[in-house]
């Protein structure tokens, strides 16, 4: 006579690591001393776990969330190639309702974790810019889709590799991404042509910038326009990260080192 | 003694005036029983035997009770409206009060009410001319407001100290050094210490030694703090100018002293300059000490 619990027995049998996604304290303490290494993956380490991977975006689909967690753990050497991991997470809102079994392989490194954690700019700044781009992609400007190009980090170099298209509306201002008013402000300014330049600490240095990187040797998926090309190319010339919202397909893409690292649909967040 | 005699004379004049006025009421009220009349007159006599200032005192007492109750209610409403419960949530004092089935707002409101009660009781006593231990009551009356102010200050000090501890601890949470936990506690006890000092001097306890101690402590804090933070303060002052006027901005090529490169970041205390493979973090005061040259 099989019991429903055996369904899970097979999934969690012989695991090396247990990933808890956004656990609450009592949940974490219940499983803190199971016979496997416990890793907490959450927006912030509220439970004070030793093994902790920061989850900068609230990935809605389970696969990206698991991939991000595994990649972060790989990056911190919490797990190794070939480890079997069980992830406990919530597919729907609320308490954990899903257990996923994954085998870790080096090929799971896509650079997404690297994009957030090892960029020149602060992880929080990159996350904030992502949120602004996603918000902009969802709502658009007055219902019409807009495009935008944010160059984050290494602002001094970026400024020297670009020129102003017009007067800089952010001159002598001290606006930081993540300030409450910024979403509205950037939405208004997104009708301007050119790129937004944002410093390592999140200060909006300039809008209206025309980027002049050398686009030599930049490998860009065919079909993407001048905005993506400029964004991708500037990240090859500098240590910046470019976050591009496409006007034509509404996707948000991130570039680093001249390569496209991440492509997400704003509607999924 | 004279006024008392005067009053009792007025009182003894009273019965003839009061008597006829009450009679018709007795006639209509208790019509049947013959024995009711003596009872009525007994009650009357007792009522009239009580001197009128006792009635005044009772009125004052009742008024005081009502006023005290209203004050308590108004204070509570006011505190809630101002957002005190939210502001002090989580402080040790509030938690203790909660565990005792009360709350800080409750306690303060009750204190205010009791203060009015106490004052009204004293007022009633003085109206009623209770001459027992007159001087004692006078001293109590003089001390009462001070005592209540002292209590308020004490509660305020404890609550503000708790809150300061919480806020500072929250601020410092990003800095993961265990020893840093002593800072919020120092702030808390400093505030409570000052509150106790104020409370004691309110009540009139000699606090000179404690004040001297406080002065010594403050002098040490200011002197050592000034010594420790003086270069940071200088940088901060320079940073205010740099942020307001922006003589150079992100992307400019500058030279400060012997360090030159592209400006990456300007904040209140430091300017980050990057050259090939090198990043200089220059304190803003050296911008003023050595000047900046901008390359075009």
Largest sheet of chain B: 5 strands, antiparallel
Average pLDDT of chain B: 79
The global form of chain B is elongated
Give the strand order, joined by hyphens, for the main sheet of chain B: 4-3-2-1-5
Give the end-to-end Cα distance of chain B, rounded to a whole number of Å.
99 Å
Helical residue percent of chain A? 25-40%
* Second rung of CATH, namely the architecture of the largest domain in chain A: 3-Layer(aba) Sandwich
- Order of secondary-structure elements of chain A: HEHEEHEEHHEHEHEEHEEE
* Rg over C-alpha atoms of chain A, rounded to the nearest angstrom: 21 Å
Uncertain residue ranges of chain A: none
Layout: helices, strands, pairs:
The complex is a heterodimer of chains A (269) and B (296).
Chain A: H1 5-12, E1 17-21, H2 25-31, E2 37-42, E3 52-54, H3 62-75, E4 84-89, E5 98-103, H4 112-117, H5 123-139, E6 148-152, H6 155-160, E7 162-164, H7 182-189, E8 195-198, E9 204-211, H8 226-237, E10 241-245, E11 252-256, E12 259-264
Parallel strand pairs in A: 1-2, 1-4, 2-3, 6-8
Antiparallel strand pairs in A: 4-5, 6-10, 7-9, 8-9, 10-11, 11-12
Chain B: H1 2-29, H2 36-49, H3 52-82, H4 84-87, H5 92-99, H6 104-127, H7 134-171, H8 182-203, H9 208-245, E1 253-256, E2 259-266, E3 270-275, E4 278-283, H10 284-290, E5 292-295
Antiparallel strand pairs in B: 1-2, 1-5, 2-3, 3-4
Helix pairs in contact in B: 1-2, 3-6, 6-7, 7-8, 9-10
Describe the structure.
The complex is a heterodimer of chains A (269) and B (296). With 269 residues, chain A is of the alpha/beta class. Chain A folds into two domains: 104 residues, Pyruvate kinase, C-terminal domain (Pyruvate Kinase, Chain: A, domain 1), CATH 3.40.1380; 150 residues, 3-Layer(aba) Sandwich (YojJ-like (1), CATH 3.40.1700.10. Helices cover 29% and strands 23% of the residues of chain A. A seven-stranded mixed β-sheet of chain A has the order 7-9-8-6-10-11-12, sandwiched between helices. The model of chain A has no long low-confidence stretch (mean pLDDT 86). Chain B has 296 residues and is of the alpha+beta class. Chain B folds into three domains: 48 residues, no CATH class; 154 residues; 82 residues, SH3 type barrels (Roll). In chain B, strand 1 and strand 2 form a beta hairpin. Chain B is elongated. The chains are: A alpha/beta (269), B alpha+beta (296). At the A-B interface, helix 6 of A face strand 2 of B.
């Amino acid at each position: 006579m099989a019991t429903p619990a055996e369904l899970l027995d097979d999934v969690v049998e012989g695991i090396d690591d247990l990933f808890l996604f956004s656990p609450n304290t009592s949940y974490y303490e219940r499983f803190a001393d199971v016979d496997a290494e416990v890793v907490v993956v959450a927006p912030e380490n509220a439970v004070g776990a030793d093994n902790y991977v920061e989850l900068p975006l609230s990935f809605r689909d389970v696969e990206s969330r698991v991939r991000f967690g595994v990649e972060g753990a790989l990056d911190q050497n919490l797990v190794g190639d070939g480890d079997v991991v069980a992830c406990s997470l919530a597919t729907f809102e609320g308490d954990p309702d899903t257990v996923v079994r994954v085998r870790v392989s080096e090929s799971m490194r896509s650079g997404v974790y690297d994009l957030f954690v090892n960029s020149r700019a602060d992880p929080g700044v990159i996350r904030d810019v992502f949120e602004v781009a996603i918000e902009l992609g969802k709502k658009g400007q007055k219902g019409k889709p807009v495009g935008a190009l944010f160059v984050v980090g290494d602002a001094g170099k970026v400024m020297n590799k670009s020129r102003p298209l017009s007067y800089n509306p952010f001159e002598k201002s001290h606006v930081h991404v993540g300030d409450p008013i910024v979403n509205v402000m950037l939405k208004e300014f997104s009708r301007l042509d050119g790129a937004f330049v944002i410093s390592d600490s999140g200060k909006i240095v300039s809008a209206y910038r025309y980027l002049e990187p050398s686009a030599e040797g930049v490998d860009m998926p065919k079909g993407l326009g001048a905005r993506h090309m400029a964004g991708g190319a500037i990240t090859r010339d500098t240590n910046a990260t470019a976050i591009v919202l496409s006007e034509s397909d509404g996707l948000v893409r991130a570039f680093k080192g001249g390569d496209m690292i991440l492509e997400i649909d704003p509607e999924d967040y | 003694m004279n006024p008392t005699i005067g009053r009792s004379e007025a009182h003894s004049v009273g019965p003839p005036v009061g008597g006829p006025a009450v009679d018709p009421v007795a006639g209509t009220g208790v019509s049947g029983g013959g024995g009711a009349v003596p009872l009525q007159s007994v009650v009357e006599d007792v009522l009239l035997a009580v001197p009128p200032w006792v009635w005044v005192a009772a009125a004052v007492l009742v008024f005081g009770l009502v006023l005290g109750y209203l004050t308590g209610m108004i204070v509570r409403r006011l505190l809630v409206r101002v957002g005190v419960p939210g502001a002090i949530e989580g402080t040790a004092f509030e938690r203790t009060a909660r565990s005792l089935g009360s709350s800080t707002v409750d306690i303060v409101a009750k204190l205010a009410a009791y203060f009015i009660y106490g004052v009204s009781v004293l007022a009633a006593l003085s109206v009623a001319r209770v001459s027992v231990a007159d001087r004692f009551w006078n001293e109590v009356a003089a001390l009462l407001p001070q005592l209540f102010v002292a209590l308020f200050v004490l509660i305020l000090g404890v609550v503000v100290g708790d809150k300061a501890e919480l806020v500072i601890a929250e601020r410092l949470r990003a800095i993961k050094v265990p020893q840093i936990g002593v800072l919020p506690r120092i702030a808390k006890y400093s505030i409570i210490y000052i509150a106790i000092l104020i409370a004691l001097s309110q009540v009139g306890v000699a606090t000179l030694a404690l004040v001297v101690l406080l002065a010594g402590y403050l002098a040490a804090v200011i002197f050592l703090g000034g010594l420790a933070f003086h270069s940071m303060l200088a940088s901060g002052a320079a940073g205010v100018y740099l942020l307001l006027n922006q003589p150079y901005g992100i992307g400019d090529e500058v030279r400060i002293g012997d360090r030159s490169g592209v400006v990456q970041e300007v904040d209140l205390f430091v300017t980050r300059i990057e050259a090939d493979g090198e990043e200089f973090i220059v304190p803003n005061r050296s911008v003023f000490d050595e000047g900046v040259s901008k390359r075009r």
